[in-house]
Design a protein that fits this description.
By secondary structure, the chain is of the alpha+beta class. The chain is built from three helices and four strands, in the order ααββββα. It has a four-stranded antiparallel beta sheet with strand order 1-2-3-4. A hairpin with a 5-residue loop joins strand 2 and strand 3. The mean pLDDT is about 95.
């Protein structure tokens, strides 16, 4: 891809997602362009849930933690992540974040290949 093509594609991407501080390879630029073009029909409104469980140790002894992370492709281009956990000893917590930058979206897809 020549410099002018890459700049034009990067400008297109930056109208939809944050590309500041992101150094993008040619294949990443192509992927993000395709992601943006297909977002409404392929991703928007879709969710994925990841559940896991593991045993751990604390000063009170052994506990089992159950975790759930829900990834939802929001109305605006990006991924909303909701994480929650519940321990069998009564501890629980949750947090959420929005992934709306180019590098964050690319890293999410690398981590969640299937």
């Amino acid at each position: 891809m020549n410099r002018n093509d890459k700049k034009a594609k990067r400008d297109y991407i930056s109208t939809h997602i944050d590309t500041s501080k992101a150094r993008l390879k040619d294949d990443e630029v192509d992927f993000l362009c395709e992601f943006i073009d297909e977002y409404d029909e392929k991703y928007k409104g879709q969710s994925r849930t990841h559940r896991s469980s593991y045993d751990g140790w604390s000063s009170d002894g052994k506990y089992t933690r159950k975790e759930e992370t829900i990834y939802t492709f929001s109305d605006d281009i990006g991924i909303h992540e909701e994480y929650s956990y519940h321990d069998d000893d009564g501890q629980s917590g949750c947090q959420s974040r929005d992934i709306t930058d180019a590098r964050g979206i690319l890293n999410w897809f690398k981590k969640h290949k299937d």
